[in-house]
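User: Sequence in, structure out. Go.
Assistant: Echoing your sequence, followed by the structure tokens.
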Amino acid sequence: MVLQGCGGSMYYAEGEMRDNVLQVNKSAFAGEDGMRESILVKFASSNFPIVVYRFSESEYSALLLQCSHRGTELNVNGNLLSCNAHGSEFDNKGNVLNGPAELPLLSFPVTTNNEYIYIQLD
């Protein structure tokens, strides 16, 4: 599913949960105009989606879209994650770029094989 917004479109990918590992097919990054740089994945045990960034065929980051300052859901604007509540900004690896947030975003370990991305949630 593709959602349109001010900063372009975000693709919501289907994920499958197995033993606290969220499995996402790599094909979710294939867009009409080439490879997407990021996708969003929702899962039942969280009120916030995860944004997954693709840096290469084997390097990804998976970040919970919850601001580390006050817990507000973040907006995805390309490689910038921003909080409408107080203006905090984060990069595509979860590092704080602008406060008031002081802590990085919650990130999850990611492994891959030829077909899937595995996001370890615990």
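User: And one key feature?
Assistant: The chain has one domain: 2-120.
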